[in-house]
Amino acid sequence: MTESSTKAHVQSPLHRLDPLTKFLIVLCISTVAIVFINLFLLLGIIAVCIIMAVVARIPLRQLWGYTKSFTYLIILLVIIQAVFYPFPITFPLLKIPANSPVLANYTLLSLDGVVYGVTLFIRLISLVVASTIFSLTTAPRDFLVAMRRIKMPFELIFMVNIAIRFIPDIKDKASEVMLAQKARGLELEKGSLQQKIRNLLPLLTPLLINYMLMARNSAIAIETRAFRWKKERTYMRSMHLTRTDYAVMAATLGLTIFCGVIFELYSSFFKII
Per the confidence metrics, is the pTM higher than 0.90? Predict the structure, then answer.
């Protein structure tokens, strides 16, 4: 990480929080989003994520750029869940005719399913946005040190750190291979969907070779630095929880418990359908 980027991080209040504090915030947001399938509560979580992005001075366009790649998969899941609604239907919208030889009187679409699908969409998007904000505001090495403070196995944390570290490199390698194949006359955008999938096959071999070379070079570098030679490691940076971290952690836990109790006791009041 460069000095300029470090200074830019210090300017944001969210960047200055300890990684454990931000990890607790993401964990609480994810827990509430997974446990409570409620549209009002999920909209509140999205609002909290947007406020976090504003506090961290992350442009919403940049945040959308990181999350839009997941949107198509989430929309597909939402459509499937809306069509195959697993609960009793109250407001049907589209039914298969009774004289149909297949799935007669089956409710193909319902208002219940649409609301459930929208709720599921917001639920998954909130998880992706919260995780993205955490990754954009936390340096991998700081997260590594923070996890060691709570006695997490170093090998496990190191694997996560390496995975995060190589994501930009993997993306760059894929772009380089794609441009090289286009320069050789490979047309990736033309043809039917089946043809486009076939056109991607020439990309697999060079990509796999590049990734295997990256893994081998990383393994050699780790071994030459005597990885696992000592059980206890030293770190250049020393990180400690401040009063602000304790206050934010207490507020996050308190608000999470409050939301859980309110929506558990008055879930029928907040129910849309």
Answer: no
Is residue 41 included in any domain, yes or no? Answer: yes
Shared domain check, 156 and 133: no
Rounded-to-integer distance, Cα 111 and Cα 96, Å: 16
Amino acid (1-letter code) at residue 137: T
Domain count, the chain: 2
Domain check: are 160 and 134 in the same one?
no
> Do 91 and 117 belong to one domain?
yes
Q: Which residues contact 138 (CB under 8 A, 6 or more apart)?
A: 19, 22
Over residues 209-256, the pLDDT tens digits come to 888 888 888 888 887 877 777 666 666 667 778 888 899 999 999 988
Return contacts of 214-222, CB within 8 angstroms, 24+ apart: 214/166, 214/169, 214/170, 214/173, 218/162, 218/166
Angle in degrees, CA 132, 135, 138, rounded to 5: 145
CB atoms within 10 A of CB 62: 12
Q: Is the domain of 31 the same as that of 80?
A: yes
Parent domain of 159: 151-240
| Amino acid present at 98 | A
Beta bridge partners of 95: 107
* 111-137 helix and 39-55 helix, angle to the nearest 10 degrees: 20
Residue with tokens 């944390």: 157
Bridge partners for 109 per DSSP: 94
Judge whether 174 lies within some domain.
Answer: yes
Count of Cβ atoms closer than 10 Å to residue 181 Cβ = 17
Domain check: are 29 and 67 in the same one?
yes
Task: Write out pLDDT tens, residues 76-106.
Answer: 877 777 777 777 777 777 677 666 666 666 6
